Amino acid sequence: MIRLRRQSKPVFLKNKSGESDSKGVWIGGDHPVAVQSMTTTDTADYEKTLEQVYGLAMEGCEIVRVTCQDPRDAAGLPHIVKRSPVPIVADIHFDHRMALAALDAGVAKLRLNPGNITDPAKTREVVKLAIERGTPIRIGVNMGSLARDLEEKLGHTPEAMVESALRHVDILEDLGHTDIVISLKAHDAPMTIYAYRLMDQRLRERKTPYALHLGVTEAGLPREGTIKSAIGLGVLLWEGIGDTLRVSLAADPVEEIPVAWGILKALGLREKGFDITACPSCGRAEIQVVELARSVEAIAKEYTAPVKVAVMGCVVNGPGESKMADVGIAGGKGKGAIYRKGELVGTYPEGQLLGQLRLEIEKVIIEQYPDYIHETNRETTPA
User: Fold this and answer.
1) Quick one: which of 183, 167, 320 has its CA closest to 244?
2) What is the pLDDT of residues 33-65, one digit of tens each?
3) What fold is seen in the domain 11-266?
């Protein structure tokens, strides 16, 4: 069983542009672990950025971060905030004026790195305006950008990351800002796990249970990054630590979203889209299992309902595995069987299997997941 989830202070994210009709998202408390990503486009090119935001939202991303590093980016933010279907977070590093501009643009949240804004007066100016706007702040600490004195004193360690974050927490609290989310990202799983465990402990001692944003930063190319993220984030989520997450991959950010949802689904924390069980194939298989599973996956992308589908290559495991799935398909020589909760629906020629499978899937959605009937992964474009 997953450890009881740590209690955290909930924070509400919603774009503050009067023209925005985007939905709000809660982070923390008893709310589901939220999925995030970040655009790779030039924020100044707001049309291209919005295109990527919509692509991420279609895949299931619930919060999108965009960079704001110069006046050109700041000028693009109001257009993005106004038309985004999800809350927008402004990523701020060295120039506090960009944080002020982002707040004026109506972003849902700021992400600040305390190691990169070294003037306390400038930080205080940003925090004051954030309080006036009712905008939450994520304190984002990375191992590669620690406060210089802490780096010299503690080195590149989880302790240094935690102290750096808590230092910034103190500033926000002194100014009366407590809508806080904290992230502590290292580039490897063990360091990340240690840092978040330590932060959880320190927040418990302080009796300030702020929400935690999980991530392994610079995780790598898709295969390596997926492995690192699944281990690092999976362990923490299993321990009840974490309120929102981003899987950081050196790839199109859209590729991050299925991995994030996959981690959450594997732990039983969220349901979205099909849960496909497929056998690894073996000498008993009388049908192309991998090809069949990919065809089922293509069908799955058309729906958002959490239907469980078992794809088996022979009659040895097919019936048994199908009992644990909403719909099962077991291949045979030139034909295959379709099951509902382990009960045989019928046997069909190989060329008819996918069509029959789709019919059974749609019956399952109507009968078991009526709330998803009108929700499909249809293509959407920016307004």
Assistant:
1) 183
2) 999 999 999 999 999 999 999 999 998 999 999
3) TIM Barrel (3.20.20)
